Amino acid sequence: GDELVGAVHRLISHADEVRRLEVRTNADTADDAARARRFGAQGIGLCRTEHMFLGERREAVERLILAEDEAECEAALAVLEPLQRKDFLELLSAMDGLPVTIRLIDPPLHEFLPSMEDLAVKVALAKERGEDPGHDATLLAAVERLHEQNPMLGLRGVRLGLVIPGLFAMQVRAIASAAAELKKQGKDPRPEIMIPLVGAVQELQLARDEVEGVLRQVAEDEGVEWPTPIGTMIELPRAAVTAGQIAEEAEFFSFGTNDLTQTTWGFSRDDVEGSFFSTYLEKGIFAVSPFESIDRDGVGALVRMGAERGRSSRPDLKLGICGEHGGDPDSIHFFHEVGLDYVSCSPFRIPVARLEAGRATLS
Ligand code: PEP
Ligand code: MG
Question: What does the entry list as the binding residues for substrate (predicted)?
Fold first, then answer.
């Protein structure tokens, strides 16, 4: 056993010496980040922030959704901000000295709205008993207003940030003030801010202006400075096609191949695997699920196009991938060929990603 473990370690160390691709991790908590660091992660390539709004924070989220004016919105955001600040303080501490790409909130709305069915039942029962459904009725009306037939194609990512005033600004203030505090402690926080689901440079421009304004303000108030690259995910075909324009507003791109696969094939990420994929696999339409291994001819071609167009407008554009494909051996070879700078995958896939990145260089 020991001999084998030693051999694997030597192999991975050798891969580290030759590989060109950096290997980062997808991690949303300090615990995951610390684990990934032990596995050799060179940073966080994707911190998803939407889970940070669930659990006991849901109440504030409901108030945010229910808000009828900016003051109510601000009150709800003021509850969330110190909690977010703590999240980022822990995460940036765990990854001190390494890049931490924090993606601004990108929930499919249905995942963090209260259930419309449950609310409807509650309201109906209250009415039956001749009681005032009160808060539940207001909440139900808001949830009905926001209900979407296709939440994955709906009010998500940058769209949500542009629609709910102050939401992105709150997150960025939390990130920046956490970084400022660490900086004052002599630490080396390296946050990067990533805008999700961008399809047009105009969306990114608006979000970026807001982000930059907040970063400037916090740096001024706190009297410390640190660089914060701002970038975007490329996860819609339109983003890949217009990557030349988008790169003018982005210091980095991270390919979101989960959504890019969904939107390129028109397959629903949530439903498709159970319904007809087995037939497709049997009939040889594809040999592996395109959600697992990169589809070079379609999704892969868009990744290549996005990388080329992005780099031709901004030669120093940093390029990564943070979809599930970032931990898939065959896909890693493809990302190496395309010339990406890093792959980002779940903590447990890091050793394999390091090995494959090395093999990709050698072949
Ligand atoms: C993606 O779409 O590939 C991605 C990494 O984002 P998420 O899975 O959170 O949508
Ligand atoms: Mg995505």
Answer: 48, 103, 235, 256-259
Closest ligand to C-alpha of residue 323 is 1
Q: Judge if the beta carbon of residue 322 lies within 6 A of ligand 1.
A: yes
Ligand 1 pocket member 235 (CB < 6 A): yes
Ligand 2 mean position to 141 CA, how many Å?
28
CA of 28 to the centre of ligand 1 (A): 13
Tokens (6 digits) for 350: 């890091």
Task: Check if the beta carbon of residue 331 is closer than 8 Å to that of residue 325.
Answer: yes
Question: Is the distance from the beta carbon of residue 48 to the nearest atom of ligand 1 less than 6 Å?
Answer: yes
ipTM: 0.99
pLDDT tens track for 145-174: 889 989 899 999 999 999 998 999 999 999
Nearest to 103 by CA among 274, 262, 313, 259: 259
Q: b/e map of 176-202 (b: 16 or more CB within 10 Å)?
A: bbbbbbbbeeeeebbbbbbbbbbbebe
pLDDT tens digits for 33-75?
999 999 999 999 999 999 999 888 988 888 888 788 889 999 9
